[in-house]
Amino acid sequence: MVSAGLLKVIALSSLAAYSAFGRSVPKSRRDSAPSGFTLTGTASSDTPLTLKIALTQSNPSGLEEALYDVSTPSSANYGQHLSKDEAASYLAPTSETSSAVNAWLQQNGLNATAMNPAGDWIRVQTTVGQANELFGASYSVYVHESTGKQVLRTLEYSIPEEIKSHVTVVHPTVMFPKYSILSPVFSAQTQKRGLPRADASCSTVTPACLQGLYGIPTTAATESSNTLGVTGYGNDWANQDDLESFLSQYRTDISASTTYSLETLDGGSDPQSSSDAGVEADLDIEYTVGIATGVPVTFISVGESNNDGDLDGFLDTINYLLDQDSPPQVITTSYGDWEPDIDEAMADNLCNAYAQLGARGVSIMFASGDGGVSGVQDRDCTTFVPEFPSGCPYITSVGGTTGTNPETAVSFSGGGFSNYWATPSYQANAVSGYLDYLGSTYSGLYNASGRGFPDVATQAQDFEIVTGGAAEPVSGTSCASPTFASIISLLNDELIAAGKSPLGFLNPWLYSTAASALTDITSGDNPGCNTDGFSATTGWDPVTGLGTPVFSKLKTAAGL
């Protein structure tokens, strides 16, 4: 962690230098609360308020350079991942930033606590009244109509001019939570049914189907240090009895008692009654334990005790992982959000945090979303809606396919181009080729200079799971992300067994050495926003990315 000296102890000379702060300048505002929230009144001034403040990061471009250096196969430093402290040093605030912000806080009787190793996020305990004075804010109480949850938010806030360049985000302020759990599973049958047989023919998707389709080995991994993390949000919990039933039916070659470990933050938990079983969590756990044979799987259950929404959960999760000395080598997340609903400074900060973890040798995968070009879930739109964090260039976005011989893009596969991040160098040629194919089609509906996603794809429709004691089929790119993550975990097991580094940040490898190890998907599209969406075609496309995995070829591409 960052030393307490930088965060809490300010020399008298520094205090004197910042003893008087001048006028404040506007930082952010919105005209009204988003749809679904109702104003109930002004918040009481003595209401406790925890603020999370993002300090200006010292060298994010240096982190990007270091990330690419250890993640690009042609680099002499490929696989030489950074240590926890080395990665954090790129985002640690300068001493000037730390001194300025802490002097201002101490002048107002406040102290800060670091939230991560870099210290670029700090936590401050205050009250509504003091926050209103400090930030020129007007915190009010809003009720989320569909859930009844109350939140404190202001529609605008300001920053003292002397520290404006040192602070990028104050939260919570103008960003409202979604409380939608981001609809991680696209569709699920409401009627439970008996367990169907294990199906290698892929009329429905089971572990046997995926093993046959992608050549995934069934032999057990051997390296206990190689782990796979599955994140869970919104009180969606994995169930051990459901996993046992699933393995008994679909992985009869391994012990049905094979299970997962649990880590919790923000008051997360994993209750085991049948009524508590969550469809998303059961899906993610069953298809990681059930495919990544022998790889230790950890379910990371994120509660809501220290946050009030899904984005807060993302922030707390990445800070939790960054603080670990040995985080899982692979992380899969089946949740996401609409990019335009995330403050750009907050999105950029989170994206840099993913880069920090990637530079340490962690492969981070997110489902690409289930609304086609309309965003995470289908909604009314006049322009295409990118997904967050799939638009972040430092994660691997996983889209969806359906069918076999050949596979085609599944219609809901999220894909498109970010409005926040430019096309990264590793995919410049691939994206350029697709734009040439697209021509003037959809001109003005998307950002042709943006980072394209997804990067890869796997099956995403009609996955058989067991939840609440019965079977049901589910679909969504939330099926695809744990599938691809399991494949990467098995590759990492063999790499570690051979004395090599895990794959880490995947994209520079995927778009170069490993591109030929993926099956190109050339048919299907992802309609939305009253259009047919993008079309899958030869080469990379914003529906299925570079294509679907072939394990034996990926193994060769990994140098095994």
TrEMBL record:
Protein name as it appears in the record: tripeptidyl-peptidase II
Cofactor binding mode, per the note? Binds 1 Ca(2+) ion per subunit.
Q: What is the E.C. number? A: 3.4.14.10
Residues of the signal peptide: 1-22
Chain residues that bind Ca(2+): 520-521, 539, 541
Looking up InterPro entries in the UniProt record yields: Peptidase_S8/S53_dom_sf, S53_propep, Sedolisin_dom, Tripeptidyl-peptidase_I
Q: Which cofactor does it need?
A: Ca(2+)
| Localization per Swiss-Prot or TrEMBL | Secreted, Extracellular space
Chemical reaction(s) catalysed: Release of an N-terminal tripeptide from a polypeptide
From which organism does this entry originate? Daedalea quercina L-15889
Q: Name one GO cellular component term.
A: extracellular region
Q: Which principal EC class is assigned to this enzyme? A: hydrolase
PROSITE patterns in the record, alphabetically?
Answer: SEDOLISIN
Q: Main site of residence?
A: secreted
Q: Where is the Peptidase S53 domain?
A: 204-560
Q: Where are the transmembrane segments?
A: none
Active-site positions, per UniProt? 280, 284, 478
SUPFAM superfamilies noted in UniProt: Protease propeptides/inhibitors, Subtilisin-like
The UniProt keywords, alphabetically, are: Calcium, Glycoprotein, Hydrolase, Metal-binding, Protease, Secreted, Serine protease, Signal, Virulence, Zymogen
**Which Gene Ontology terms cover its molecular function?**
metal ion binding; serine-type endopeptidase activity; tripeptidyl-peptidase activity
Q: What does this protein do?
A: Secreted tripeptidyl-peptidase which degrades proteins at acidic pHs and is involved in virulence.
Biological process (GO), any one: proteolysis
